[in-house]
Structure formats: C-alpha cells, structure tokens
C-alpha cells in the first residue's frame, strides 16, 4: 500500500466522505420536506376552518403559510387563489393561477378558475374564452359530462353577455349533442337559444321539455316567448296564458300577443266591418299619440316638433276619409295601416311610446311588410 | 512479477499538482455545495425547532436573545472567526493569510450561523455559506499539501461553489468570487471557479430541485418613460444603501468600543431588540424570502412594503452590528424588494403611462440595493437574472444599479466589506492582488 501515492488515498477517502455527506444531506432534505408537508397540512386545516367561519383574511394568511411550507402542492395554491379572489386581491390570485397554468396548461380546474377570475374582472374576452375552451376540452371523461355542460353554459352566457351571438350559437350547437333527456336541462338550453336569437331551436327545445313536463312554468314562458318572436301570436298567447301572472314579462307578451290578434286590421278571415273597427281603433290610438307628442313639453321649443305637422295634416285628412266611409276596402286599410305605422314611428322617435298597444302596432306593421319600429 | 515493476506501474497514479488542482476544484465544488445545502437545511430545521408552527409572543420575544447568548459564548470562546457575514474574513484569508482558514472556522460558522439565523435574526445564509465553502477549500488544499499559492487559489473556488448552491446562481457566484473576493475579473482561477460552481449547483439542484429562489412573472419595460421611474428607484436605492451601510458601521463600531467582557452578551442585546421587533412584525422573522416572493408577485400593500423595508434595515443593522453570525446578502435583497415594490406602487398610481407594476420594481430594487450595499454591480445584475430566471428587465436593472452604485460610492467611498475589515484591524487588500496561475 505504501506505493500508492498519498494523494490518491486522500482522493479516495474524500470521495467516500463526499458520497456519505451527499447521502446524509439528501436524508436531511427529505426529512425537512416531510416536516414542511406536515406543517402545510396543519396550516391548510386552519385555513379551511377559517373559511368555514367566514374569516377569509385569516384563511389567506394560513394558506400563504401552507403554500410557503409546501410549494409543490397544487391544492393549496388553488385554494389560496380562491381565497385571494374572495378578498378582492385578484391580481395575486391571477398570478398564482397563471403560474400553476404554466406547469399544467391543460388542467381544467386551473383554466376554469382563471376564466372565472377574468370574467369577474371584466378582462380580455380572448383569454377568457381560451381558458374556458381548454377547460371544456380537458373535461372529457364520462364522469365530467355534467361539469363540461355547465362550463360550456357559463361560456355561452359570457359570449351572449359580450354580444358574441354567433360564437355563442356555435357553442350551443356543440352543447346540444348528447344531451340528457331531462326537462330542466332542455329548458336551460332552449333559453340560451332564445337569448342567442335562434327562435326555432328554442321553441323546439321548449316544446320537447313541455312534452315531458307540461306544467313547467319556465318551459311555458320560454315557448310563449319563442313563438312570439316567430310571430306565431296565437301559440304565444296559448302558452303564455298558462304562465303565472306574477311573471311580468310573460304577462306583457301575452297582452301584446292578444292585442296583435285582436287589433290587426289585415288579419285573415275578417269581415269589412271588423276591419274598419280595428283600423279605427288603432288609428285613434296613433293619432292620440301624435297629438300628445305634438304638445311642447316644459322648456321645449315648438319648432322642434314642426316635423310632426305633415303627419298631423295627413292624419286629419285620413280621419275625414275614414268617417265618411262606413266600410273600407282592403287598399284603404293598408293605406291606413301604413299611416298608423309612420305615425307610430315618428311618435316613438320623438316622444317614445311603450304601451303594449304601441308594441303590438309595431309588430303588426312588421308582420305586413311595413317599416318596423 | 517483480515488485519493483509493479511499483513502476503505479507511478502514473501520482497526480501532478495542476491536475490535482482541477480534480480538487470539482470535489470542493461538490463539498461546498453540500455544505451550503446542509447549512440552509440546518437553519430551516433550527427555525422550526425554536419557533414551532405558530409561536406565541413570549416565544418570539425570548428565543432570539437566549439563542444569541449561547451564540455569543461560542463566538467569543470557541469560534472567534465565525462572527459576522464571513466575506471579509474570506477576503482577508485570500489576500493576507495565503488562503489559510482554520478547520474550526467553517465548523463554527456552520453551527453558530445555523443557531443565529434559525433563531430569527435578520441575517442571511449566503455570506456564511461563502465562508464555509472557502474554509472547506482551504482545509482540503492543505490536506493535499498543495503549495501556499494553490491553497490560496482554492479559496475563491470554494466560495464560488458555496454561493452557487446557496442562491442557485452559478454564473453570479463565479462573478462574485472574481469581482468581490479576488477583485479581478480576469483572474486565472476563472476556470476552476466555473468548475466548482457548476459541480456545486448540480449537487444543490439534485437535492433541493431546480426551482428558482423566487418565482416572479416575466416583467419588461412597458414604456420608455418608465426608465425615469427606474432611475428614481436607483436614487432611492443608493440613499437606502448609504443609510444601511453607515448605520451598520456605526452600530458595530459602538458595540466594538464596549469593554471586551461584554462581548459575550452583545449578540444577546441585539437578540432582545429583534425579539421585540418580531412580536410587533412577525414578517421580519429569519431570512424573509417568502415576503420577497410576495413583493415580486405584487402581493403586498404599499404600507406593508414601506414598513418592512425600514424595519428590515433596522433589524439587520442591529443583528449584524451586535456581532451575530450571519450575512447581509439576503437582507439586502429583502430591503431592495420592499423599496422597489413601494416605489413601483407609487409610480403605478401617478404615472400618466402604463407601468410594469410593483413586482417589476421589486425585482429591480433587489439588484439596486445589492449594487449599492455589496458594491458588486456586475454580480447583482447576473444574480437577479439567475434568481428569478427573468432576462426581460435588463435595461431598467442596469440603470437603477449604476445610479445606486454611484450614489453609494460617492458618499461612502469605502465598500462595506473593506470598512468592516478596517473595524476589525485587518489591513484592506488592494483591488488587484497577484493570483498564482492555476489549472
């Protein structure tokens, strides 16, 4: 052994020492990690208690400790982000979620939380849609179907709220695939079609739901509204009559539908007397609106209402013509309805008109190809 | 076989000194890395042991002074070279004592440093790690009976290795060893420091993982006019650096003027002040990287950051000035992050243009204070890059660093480590010492 140089012996010795030191350090590091994990669990439990008791600031402090003790645990960071968002510290919550997303870009939970945070802060729609879509795409297993549907519905509601109807309709069509046969789900989706302006699909959805649950208030109200938008006022009135009078919108639509059905002078299968009666009624309503509108309000100059004078003159001439005729021909009815339509437009533009009959007249005009309001 | 022939075969196993130096650079890198990691783990374990999960106010008040009393005894009676950060001692060993650091110094630094920092003193572990690494290098060099010049050259190698593992910053560690320990960026030991730094960081990452010390978002200069705001941060950083350096030197000199029989108790006096501060502001406990992380992510209020900045300056001055064992790197970064976050919040509130947010300023603030206090501007730039793994904010960082560095140098011409050496009666080395050529 004496022949082996001292340096070599020392090097071998130091290498062995280094290996032992390495193993020892690894053991200490593992032990410290375990200690921190235990600490983190305790902080997390405290945070949960604080959240249950509504002490969000305490929960945030405890969650900060938990994440500091065990930075690898995704659950703690997600909970911290939620608690921070509850506290209104959105920037930090977003930062935490973005950091998590960097590691797991397709995690549905992280993407969904980010999307909801963006919605709450009314931030850029592009990123928000991307987060929603990644979340939806990542929720692919059978157990996730319900969640995926709800997330897509959230996205559709967001798109509708931001005026992106065509994108909302695309998502709605995807949503319609493999729907469970549950009336409440059908109604929810039909309501979204209604909001997106796809009235035929909305009516189809509502009627499907009503076939299973004929008494459904939401189904009846939705079907009534969809039929109303499709100008099927008879069906609309039929559905809406079944809806509780407490539903203000349904009541108004029912009233307007009834007025359209009762006051349209160009409706089919009417006798000339009835046509005249209807024309007189709507003409009187329109001229009354015109006269009321032509009176200057307090502080309003009369010159600002001069543009109504030609219509007033025309209306007075038509009134004379209407009085002199005991029965009116269809041409005269059309002429009268055209005048009523123009009067209503001018009145609405100048003074506003929001009575149910005003809305009914607007829809009658549109129904017969006259200028809509 | 003739035994003589067999002996001849063994001859190639003898290593020439230059080859041995290279091999030792790797081994020292690994050992320094292990020591730095173990030191960090010991501090961590000590902190848990002393304070538990959620310490009571009484515990916060008593732990630091009591542990400091033990540390004071050890520092006076057993490990006199383990006081302070360790970097001035390493510089002295390199420039004045042919690289000789006694074996008991790194051992003492490890023990006392772990006790002191674990007990909540506002001090960092990086300076002590540098001394421990340098000490290991010196001891190993002497075990191998290297020439004094070689032993001396191993000191910055060990220092770089330890700093590389302590901060997970291999490049900054090399630059620090050259810029601060040797004082010459063209030193011949560059190759060995790089080898040790890489070996060390590999060891550290294999044990602790490859996460950056702080996780900060990618920041960048949002608007060109924002450079003015960063310049203002540089000025503030320079002023804070001056306050810190002058305050620390003044308090340390005051303690040193006291009778020598009080030396044992001086760290405990600092401990009492820290105990009181910890009751009032528990966020000052220990190294404080969690708060720095929060500041970098824009998660602290302006009032909190301003308060923590001022109190950290005071706490670090007290902890260090009273003669405890621990470094000023980490407190420097902490103060810088808080100052930067404060300025960033103000700028975001009043600037007529978009700004990078408080986190970006906190990031630049860290480098700014490092440049102003440690006076190693190049190291500070690289350290910020490596700590955060963010290379987007280089221009603001350099502007603020240079301003802070210039202000600090103008009003405190002597760098803090030189001033500390002077206080200890150690001759200050020249800026460009002779370094022996090495492997």
Describe the structure.
The complex is a heterodimer of chains A (373) and B (439). Chain A is mainly alpha-helical and 373 residues long. Chain A has helices at 6-52, 56-69, 74-87, 90-103, 108-120, 125-138, 145-161, 165-175, 183-196, 199-212, 217-229, 233-241, 248-263, 272-294, 309-324, 330-350, 356-367. Among the domains of chain A are: 179-263, Tetratricopeptide repeat domain (Serine Threonine Protein Phosphatase 5, Tetratricopeptide repeat, Alpha Horseshoe), CATH 1.25.40; 272-294 and 306-367, no CATH class. In chain A, α9 (183-196) packs antiparallel against α10 (199-212), α12 crosses α13 (248-263) and α13 (248-263) packs across α17 (356-367). Chain B is an all-alpha fold and 439 residues long. Chain B folds into 2 domains: 16-208, Clc chloride channel (Orthogonal Bundle), CATH 1.10.3080.10; 226-423, Clc chloride channel (Orthogonal Bundle). Helices cover 71% and strands 0% of the residues of chain B. Chain B has 18 helices and no strands. Chain B has helices at 3-10, 17-51, 57-77, 87-96, 104-118, 126-143, 148-167, 170-182, 190-208, 226-257, 266-280, 289-296, 302-321, 329-350, 358-373, 377-388, 394-411, 416-423. The radius of gyration of chain B is 22 Å and the shape is globular. Residues 431-439 of chain B have low confidence and may be disordered. Chain A binds chain B through residues 3-8, 10-11, 14-15, 18, 21-22, 24-26, 28-29, 32, 35, 39, 42-43, 64, 68, 71, 89, 91-92, 95-96, 98-99, and chain B through 6-7, 10, 13-15, 20, 23, 27, 30-31, 34, 37-38, 41-42, 44-45, 48, 53, 140, 143-145, 203, 207-208, 211, 215, 217, 290, 294, 297-299.
């Amino acid at each position: 052994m004496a022949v082996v140089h001292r340096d070599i012996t020392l090097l071998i010795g130091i290498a062995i020492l280094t290996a032992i030191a390495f193993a020892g350090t690894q053991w200490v590091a593992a032990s410290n990690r375990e200690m921190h994990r235990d600490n983190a669990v305790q902080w997390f439990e405290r945070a949960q208690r604080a959240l249950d008791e509504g002490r969000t600031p305490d929960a945030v402090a405890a969650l900060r400790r938990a994440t500091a003790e065990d930075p690898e645990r995704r659950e703690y960071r997600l909970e911290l982000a939620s608690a921070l968002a509850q506290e209104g510290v959105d920037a930090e919550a977003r930062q935490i979620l973005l950091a998590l997303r960097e590691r797991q870009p397709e995690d549905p939970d992280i993407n969904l939380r980010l999307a909801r945070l963006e919605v709450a802060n009314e931030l850029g729609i592009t990123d928000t849609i991307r987060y929603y879509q990644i979340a939806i795409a990542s929720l692919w297993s059978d157990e996730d179907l319900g969640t995926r549907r709800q997330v897509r519905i959230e996205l559709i509601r967001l798109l509708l709220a931001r005026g992106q109807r065509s994108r909302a309709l695309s998502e709605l069509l995807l949503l319609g695939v493999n729907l469970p046969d549950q009336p409440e789900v059908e109604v929810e989706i039909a309501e979204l079609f209604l909001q997106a302006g796809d009235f035929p699909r909305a009516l189809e959805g509502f009627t499907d739901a009503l076939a299973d649950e004929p008494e459904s208030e939401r189904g009846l109200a939705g079907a009534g509204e969809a039929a109303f938008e499709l100008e099927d006022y008879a069906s609309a009135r039929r559905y809406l009559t079944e809806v509780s009078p407490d539903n203000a919108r349904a009541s108004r639509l029912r009233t307007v539908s009834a007025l359209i059905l009762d006051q349209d002078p160009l409706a089919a299968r009417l006798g000339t007397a009835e046509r005249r009666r209807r024309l007189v009624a709507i003409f009187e309503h329109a001229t009354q609106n015109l006269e009321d509108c032509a009176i200057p309000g307090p502080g309003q100059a009369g010159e600002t209402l001069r543009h109504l004078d030609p219509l007033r003159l025309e209306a007075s001439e038509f009134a004379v013509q209407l009085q002199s005729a005991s029965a009116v021909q269809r041409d005269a009815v059309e002429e009268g309805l055209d005048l009523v339509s123009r009067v209503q437009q001018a009145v609405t533009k100048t003074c506003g008109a929001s009575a149910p009959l005003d809305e009914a007249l607007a829809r009658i005009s549109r129904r017969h190809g006259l200028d809509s309001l | 076989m003739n035994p003589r022939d067999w002996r001849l075969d063994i001859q190639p196993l003898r290593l020439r000194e230059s080859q041995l130096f290279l091999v030792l650079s790797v081994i020292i890198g690994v050992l320094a890395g292990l020591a730095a990691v173990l030191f960090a783990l010991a501090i961590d374990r000590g902190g848990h042991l002393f304070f538990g999960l959620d310490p009571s106010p009484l515990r916060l008040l008593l732990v630091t002074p009591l542990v400091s009393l033990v540390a004071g005894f050890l520092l006076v009676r057993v490990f006199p070279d383990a006081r302070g950060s360790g970097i001035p001692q390493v510089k002295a060993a390199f420039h004045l004592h042919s690289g000789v650091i006694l074996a008991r110094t790194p051992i003492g630094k490890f023990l006392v440093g772990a006790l002191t920092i674990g007990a909540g003193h506002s001090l960092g572990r990086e300076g002590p790690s540098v001394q421990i690494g340098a000490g290991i290098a010196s001891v190993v060099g002497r075990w191998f009976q290297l020439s004094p010049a070689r032993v001396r050259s191993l000191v910055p190698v060990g220092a770089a290795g330890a700093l590389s593992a302590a901060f997970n910053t291999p490049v900054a560690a090399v630059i620090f060893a050259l810029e601060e320990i040797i004082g010459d960026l063209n030193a011949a030991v560059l190759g060995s420091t790089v080898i040790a730094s890489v070996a060390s960081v590999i060891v550290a990452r294999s044990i602790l993982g490859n996460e950056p010390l702080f996780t900060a978002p990618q920041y960048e200069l949002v608007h060109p006019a924002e450079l003015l705001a960063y310049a203002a941060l540089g000025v503030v950083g320079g002023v804070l650096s001056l306050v810190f350096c002058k305050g620390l030197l003044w308090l340390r000199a005051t303690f040193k003027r006291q009778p020598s029989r009080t030396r044992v108790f001086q760290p405990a006096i600092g401990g009492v002040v820290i105990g009181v501060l910890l009751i009032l502001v528990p966020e000052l406990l220990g190294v404080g990287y969690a708060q720095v992380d929060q500041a970098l992510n824009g998660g602290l209020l302006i009032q909190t950051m301003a308060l923590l900045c001022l109190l950290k300056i005071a706490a670090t001055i007290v902890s260090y000035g009273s003669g405890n064992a621990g470094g000023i790197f980490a407190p420097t970064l902490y103060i810088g992050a808080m100052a930067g976050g404060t300025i960033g919040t103000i700028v975001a509130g009043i600037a007529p243009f978009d700004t990078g947010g408080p986190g970006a300023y906190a990031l630049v603030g860290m480098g700014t204070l490092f440049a102003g206090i440690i006076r190693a501007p190049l190291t500070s730039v690289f350290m910020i890059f490596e700590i955060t793994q963010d290379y987007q904010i280089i221009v603001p960082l350099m502007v603020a660093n240079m301003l802070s560095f210039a202000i600090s140098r103008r009003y405190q011409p002597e760098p803090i480590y030189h001033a500390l050496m002077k206080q200890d009666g150690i001759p200050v080395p020249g800026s460009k010492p002779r370094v022996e050529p090495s492997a």
